[in-house]
């Protein structure tokens, strides 16, 4: 999870509080309108091998969980590579404790999705610092592409408002340049910040949709593995984390992917 606000979008505390309440429903409306422009590619996607790239443990399930299961069910090769160590969230734990907890959560979630342990790679780039390591990140992504030679690469967008997500999007686009594959970005924090949807569209074209029917409950179960990332409690004792309204954005009738020109 580990959300950090994008640069240039800070405001006074009172205005920021007001905007925080307004942005998610506006993003839901904007994202829904974009989704309605999408093309259903479910029949074609199952037969394509895939490399899923995620900045943090949980992004692979949020953005691509049903698509991973659909491809595995069709007998296609799928490999998941998660980039960051997960050390910073939740902030009340020691970093080493977070790394261990989140690696365990990642492996349990991917097992629910049906992914074999050897098809999962968890790197140790420092969480929240990916923008400082883009050259090394590009090299790591190039190595993964050479090892797996996928038909498709699914990664977060460089238009995502989270700095780690955007850094991965930039590094992946550089690593994919000149290769005979398709690069598609999946939205995550666009569902919270409406302007980032517009940036996503400018960097891509109308989305492709993969239906989730038959896979929603397993995706929900995989997300449940990430208990360290969930908001808990109520009222003044409520902790930060993934809220139920946010998770519902990823449990709808399809998953959305934006073709990225190379």
Number of strands: 8
Mean pLDDT: 93
How widely separated are the two ends? 28 Å
List the total number of helices.
9
- Radius of gyration, CA atoms, in whole angstroms: 17 Å
**Widest β-sheet, arrangement of strands:** 1-7-8-6-5-2-3-4
Helix share bin:
40-55%
State the shape: globular
Largest sheet: 8 strands, mixed
Descriptive notes:
The chain has 262 residues and is an alpha/beta fold. Helix content is 44%, strand content 15%. It has helices at 13-36, 42-45, 59-73, 95-113, 134-148, 163-176, 194-202, 216-224, 244-248; strands spanning 39-40, 50-54, 78-84, 120-125, 152-156, 182-186, 208-211, 254-259. The chain has an 8-stranded mixed sheet with strand order 1-7-8-6-5-2-3-4, sandwiched between helices. Strand 5 (152-156), helix 6 (163-176) and strand 6 (182-186) form a beta-alpha-beta unit.
């Amino acid at each position: 999870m580990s959300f950090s606000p994008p640069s240039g979008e800070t405001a006074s505390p009172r205005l920021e509080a007001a905007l925080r309440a307004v942005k998610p429903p506006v993003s839901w409306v904007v994202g829904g309108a974009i989704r309605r422009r999408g093309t259903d590619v479910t029949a074609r996607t199952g037969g394509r091998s895939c490399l899923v790239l995620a900045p943090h443990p949980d992004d692979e399930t949020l953005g691509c969980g049903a698509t991973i299961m659909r491809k595995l069910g069709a007998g296609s090769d799928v490999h998941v590579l998660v980039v960051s160590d997960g050390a910073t969230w939740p902030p009340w734990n020691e970093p080493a404790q977070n790394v261990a907890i989140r690696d365990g959560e990642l492996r349990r979630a991917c097992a629910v999705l049906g992914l074999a342990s050897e098809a999962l790679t968890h790197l140790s780039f420092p969480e929240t610092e990916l923008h400082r390591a883009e050259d090394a990140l590009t090299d790591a992504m190039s190595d993964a592409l050479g090892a797996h030679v996928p038909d498709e690469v699914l990664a977060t967008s460089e238009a995502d408002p989270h700095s780690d997500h955007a850094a991965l999007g930039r590094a992946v686009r550089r690593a994919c340049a000149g290769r005979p594959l398709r690069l598609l970005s999946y939205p995550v924090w666009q569902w919270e910040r409406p302007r980032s949807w517009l940036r996503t569209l400018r960097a891509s074209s109308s989305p492709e949709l993969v239906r989730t029917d038959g896979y929603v409950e397993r995706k929900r179960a995989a997300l449940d593995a990430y208990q360290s990332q969930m908001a808990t409690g109520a009222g003044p004792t409520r902790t930060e984390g993934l809220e139920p309204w946010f998770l519902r954005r990823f449990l709808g009738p399809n998953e959305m992917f934006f073709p990225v020109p190379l």
